[in-house]
Amino acid sequence: MKRNITIQLDEEVIQEAKVLAAKKGTSVSGLVTQSIVSMTEAARRYEDARQRALAALPAHRDSSAGEPSARTWTREDLYDRWK
Question: Each residue of 29-47: pLDDT tens digit?
Answer without folding.
Answer: 999 999 999 999 999 999 9
